[in-house]
Amino acid sequence: MMKKKKIVLIQDNEDILNIMDEVLEEEGFDVTSSLTTEPIEKIDEIDPNLVIVDEHIKGTKKGAKVIEELKSDPDTEDISAVLTSTSFDLPAKANACKADDFIEKPFDLDHMIDVVKKNS
Fold first, then answer.
1. What value does the CA radius of gyration of the chain take, rounded to a whole number of Å?
2. What's the pTM?
3. Cα–Cα–Cα angle for 117, 111, 109, nearest 5°?
4. Cα 63 to Cα 2, 49, 51, 82, distances in angstroms
5. In whole angstroms, what is the distance from residue 89 CA to residue 76 CA?
6. Which of 32, 59, 97, 111 could cysteine-pair with 67, CB 3.0–4.6 Å?
7. Statement: residue 30 has pLDDT above 80
8. Is the dihedral of CA 119, 11, 25, 103 positive or negative?
9. What is the pLDDT of residue 59?
């Protein structure tokens, strides 16, 4: 059996977090979901294929900063990263932090699944 691809999912809104988690689990992913950046601290243990981070997460760091740090560390630079946000300049933000892709909110679930599959 193929090993499930792992996703770390960090969102600012619990309802959206739960919906995304449920949909991705149904699609066959192993999802570690959180409202905080805690999973990022355990990224070595989790060893995800993909990290999805919202720009407006709780805490002192914006999502783009989290992704920028992952991408500037040789140990984690190969992990795919997707930035999510309602912000109008999301494409530019995603580009600036070296995210592999972005998902604009509110999103269409099919589109979200496509982006995740393409990047994981």
1. 13
2. 0.96
3. 100
4. 31, 18, 11, 10
5. 25
6. 97
7. yes
8. negative
9. 87
In the block, residue with structure tokens 């919202």: 54
Nearest-angstrom CA–CA distance, 32 and 30: 7
Q: What are phi and psi of 50, to 5 degrees?
A: -150, 140
Residue type, 57: I
The answer to whether 52 and 80 have CB atoms below 8 angstroms apart is: no
CA distances from 107 to 20, 31, 73, 85, 88 (A): 10, 19, 30, 9, 13
pLDDT in tens, 64-87: 999 999 999 999 999 999 999 999
For residue 4, the model assigns a pLDDT of 96
The full length of the chain comes to: 120
What string of DSSP letters covers 35-102? Answer: SSSHHHHTHHHH--SEEEEETT-SSSS-HHHHHHHHHTSTTTTTSEEEEEES-TTHHHHHHHTT-SEE
**Average model confidence (pLDDT) across the chain:** 96
